[in-house]
Amino acid sequence: MTRGEPEDPRAARTRARLRSALLAECAERPLEEVGVAALVRRAGVGRATFYVHYPDLEALAVDACADVVREAVEALHAWRGRPDPVRAPAALPEFFGSLTPHAALYRTLLAPGGGGPLGRVLHRDLRAYSLRERERAGAADAPLVASAVAATFAGVLADWLHGDLDGTPGEIADQVWQLLVALHASR
Prior knowledge:
Blueprint: H1 9-28, H2 36-43, H3 47-53, H4 57-76, H5 91-98, H6 103-109, H7 116-136, H8 142-161, H9 169-185
Helix pairs in contact: 1-2, 1-4, 4-5, 4-7, 5-9, 7-8, 8-9
């Protein structure tokens, strides 16, 4: 499929079934213990169909968790006017709180420090959004600050999920928010 082309509804439904089945499987066991056979059985599709859409379970898991990336980007930009330098917008603590049901899966895909396959997607998307916003505002050092914002958020999120940072969703949201506001205020 090329950009701009509408997605085949059958393929979209199949991928949605596979994503849903993976999340259900991972609610019962770690991703490392999920097998393709059990997954396709739960999704009601054939094994070959799985491989038409995904090269492996990790690729499916990243796709299934991609919504968390979009939600993170939206939560970080859910404010208008001048941002409160201390309190995160309400969407950010809500975002952190929403991670609990699939935290084990996110920990598998998001390594401490913000690496891993989900970390790469998060960093890429957050950096692109931040860069666009900073360039639109004519901010100095837009690429540098966009990279710093993406790395900071991905790293804090990952370290919090892995238990390397303490705090409730509200506390960690406010703390990372303060860091991000300081980065945006630089230069």
